[in-house]
Amino acid sequence: MKTSTIKQETERSKWLQIAFWLSMITIFYNMIEGIVSTYFGMQDETLALFGFGVDSFVEVISGIGIAHMVYRLRSNPNVEKDRFERQALRITGFSFYLLTVGIVASSVLTIIAGGQPETTRVGIIISTISIITMYALVHYKIKAGKKLNSPPIISDANCTKTCLYLSLLLLLSSGLYELFQIPYIDAIGALGIAYFAFKEGREAFEKAKGKDCCGDTC
Q1: Which residue, 130, 4, 147, is CA-closest to 70?
Q2: Cα 77 to the chain's mean position, in Å?
Q3: Which residue has the higher pLDDT, 148 or 128?
Q4: How far apart are CA 89 and CA 212, in angstroms?
Q5: What pLDDT, on the 0 to 100 scale, is given for residue 216?
Q6: How confident is the model at residue 98 (pLDDT cuts 50, 70, 90)?
Q7: Cα separation of 205 and 91, whole Å?
Q8: Higher-confidence residue: 164 or 80?
Q9: Is 177 a residue whose pLDDT tops 90?
Q10: What's residue 2's pLDDT?
Q11: What is residue 218's predicted lDDT score, i.e. its pLDDT?
Q12: pLDDT value, residue 217
């Protein structure tokens, strides 16, 4: 085997390992974020933070499918989605749709009842941490995808970019409420999260059908 070929294989193996650990970080971070967000979302009665937390749990299911895919890519760069990955994507899509319905219904009821959060400080803290984390993950996932010439990994990076947008939305709604006590801004922020959840659900079903898409990569 030529020296250049050995070097290429070594480089590919290194970046596949990096891609795998990036997916594992995504899974464990979303698990922690989901637990903290749903707990304080219920305690402080902030619907946007609670919806953000449930979204994080759904992202864990998606992350497991991506980690499985990257693991298989290490042995076959041209591997197609297997039954496990497709099933994980379908479950993810259904969960996102269910989340969308739940958030919309809760937001409407909250607006009708005139409910307001006790505080949104935790939402500000969590969203700020999430923005930093997701930005770093997007950067390195795109880099790994380009190094490996892997559309699925780049697609996953764009899905993580959607999580970044969700974090920005949570920061905006939480910050506006904490600073100005704007009525219903928390519920409006939750509806924004519902929109992204619906979009992610649709994309999960598209990917299960064999189309590598997420966000602008459809």
Answers
A1: 147
A2: 24
A3: 128
A4: 11
A5: 46
A6: very high
A7: 9
A8: 164
A9: yes
A10: 67
A11: 43
A12: 45
Q: Pick 70 or 24 by higher pLDDT.
A: 24
CA distance 175 to 12: 43
The count of residues in the chain is 218
Residue holding tokens 């064999």?
210
The answer to whether the beta carbons of residues 23 and 66 sit under 8 Å apart is: yes
pTM tops 0.90: no
One DSSP character per residue, 135-199 reads HHHHHHHHHHHHHHT-HHHHHHHHHHHHHHHHHHHHHHHHHHHHHH--TTHHHHHHHHHHHHHHH
* Nearby residues of 154 by Cβ (< 8 Å), 6 or more positions away: 141, 142, 145, 146, 217
Nearest CA among 65, 167, 169, 173 for reference residue 116: 173
Tokens for 190, please give them: 């939750």
Share the mean pLDDT of the chain.
87
